[in-house]
Amino acid sequence: MAFRSLILLLIFMLASCSGNNEKDGKRPDQENIVIHGTLQNGADQLVTLDLMGVSAFIPIDSTRCNKEGEFGLSFKGSGMNYYSLKYTEHGYITLIAEPGDRILITGSANSIYPYSIEGSLASELVMKLGVAHKEALNRLHNISEKTEMIMGDDDFRRKKQELNKEYDAVSQSFKQYSREFIMRNPGSPAILIALYNQFGPALPVFDPVNDFNVYQFVDSTLYKKFPENEAVKSLHSELSAVIQQTKAQQSGRHISTGDKAPDFALKTADNEIVTLSELRGNYVLLQVWASWSKPATEENRFLEECYRLYGDENFVILQASIDNDRKKWIAATEMQHAGWFHVSDLLRWESVIVKLYGIERIPANFLINPDGVIIETDIFGEDLVETIKKYLP
Predict the structure, then answer these.
(1) What is the pLDDT along the chain (393 residues), one digit of tens a residue?
(2) Helix/strand/coil for 264
(3) Beta bridge partners of 84
């Protein structure tokens, strides 16, 4: 399961966040989020604010500091959200804000650290997390540099082993710090940032398989408080799919008619997450295929026919690919109808859809009723068109 897709824009953050839920009486402009700041050496410095979506930054506002380095931003928010505030070329800080929040920032236009935020406990927490993260990254970087310096030494292997132990010790120390940070602050949006921190590309602090209990703890505490937040919903959907996948693997049974269709979350080519559960209320034709499979691609003309006949009804096609070549997958989908969903985790036979539904060959398909129950399996060609006609005359 691609947990890394949940909020990739939080990775490598040297960040801070705010989300003060404590309101100190009535204030004007309750719907607005107001940010004030003072930056040392910040005269005329550009300050930008973006909403941090699951897959993209969405511009919110920008301004310039006055000659004293002061700036102010005010905008209408909707629920708790994560924001990126950038005022230096060395990175950005993360804010977590809700309507009515008033955030005061003091920093330097020349660097991220040190900085301070007033009026938000969550911001202070993430600032501390960011300091610890930065310190760990610096130590790991120094170890990597030492490793490069000893290349070619006669006793390279011994020295390398010692440096590996040092690297592992630093990594484990920060992981323990992050685990304790999460457990001490249940329900704080800051813990989602701690969950997704990384030591480097493809080097997460927490792994969704080995550290499943940590993921589950974050989900259980945040989903209760912020069920409408995009990042929190994405984590919850993906975690639910992993749980169902685990149960299916443990049971060892194949999916058949009459079973509840296991939920899952996969991404489109535009990195938008689609879950099976969000399509509830429609008849859903779930087809598992791949661009490299001729029998699977030949079935597409029958999908076109089904969509032509029933696309205006409560009928949805969800085509899940087990490709592993992104370019070939996208090229194949561009030759098909744009009206239905194309999703994939690009893991070929290791795909979550293969494990959840016990796929042994492709194409494979499942017709799911509006209640989420599988009512037909592996029907192809003209039989597929005629079968759907029984349910959508």
Answers:
(1) 444 333 334 433 433 333 333 333 434 446 799 999 999 999 999 999 999 987 789 999 999 999 999 999 999 988 899 999 999 988 899 999 989 999 999 999 999 988 999 878 888 888 889 999 999 999 999 999 998 898 888 888 888 899 999 999 999 999 999 999 999 999 999 999 999 999 987 788 998 778 888 999 999 999 999 999 989 988 888 787 667 656 655 555 567 899 999 888 888 988 888 889 889 999 999 999 999 888 888 888 899 999 988 888 889 999 999 999 899 999 888 877 667 899 999 998 888 888 888 888 899 999 999 999 999 999 999 899 999 988 986
(2) coil
(3) 50, 94
Pairing of strands 315-321, 91-97: unpaired
Query: Of how many residues is the chain composed?
Result: 393
- Distance from C-alpha of 201 to C-alpha of 93, rounded to nearest angstrom: 20
| Helices 300-310 and 381-391, packing angle to 10 deg | 20
Closest to 14 (Cα-Cα) out of 175, 127, 95, 139: 127
Distance of CA 131 to the CA centre of its chain: 23
The residue with tokens 């370019």 is 327
What distance in Å separates the CA atoms of residue 185 and residue 125, rounded to the nearest whole number?
A: 9
Using DSSP's 3-state secondary structure scheme, residue 25 falls into coil
The structure tokens 């008033």 sit at: 102
Residues 151 and 46 sit within 8 Å (Cβ to Cβ): no
Residue with tokens 């890394």: 4
* 3-state DSSP assignment of residue 242: helix
**Dihedral, CA atoms, 253, 257, 262, 268, nearest 10 degrees?**
120
**Site of tokens 């042994």:** 360
Number of alpha carbons in the 13 Å side-chain half-sphere of residue 138: 7
Nearest residue to 320 (alpha-carbon basis) of 311, 305, 333 = 333
